[in-house]
User: What shape does this take?
Amino acid sequence: MRTTDSNHSRPVASNVLDRRFEVTEPNTVWWRISRTSPPGGVAVLGAVEDLFSRRVVGWSSSEAMTSRLVVDAVAMALGRRRPGAESLAHSDRGKPVRE
Assistant: This one.
């Protein structure tokens, strides 16, 4: 299953993380993970993982992959943790989600 589509003309952010997955402090690097349920399923999960602890710090579920799913997962993570101004939130360069 293909999850990333960077073949478009919209701006693409730089890959600041650049596969540097070793993190020395909590709440310095978060990344977004999106998974769908098994084939034929209707649930979509959006999750934010802290790369230091490798724990999910925010999540949201929906029947469709929408931008609200991602915003809600990040909002939960922000409410539960307090990242500093220099923290990095990394996301795939995936295909756009529905509004």
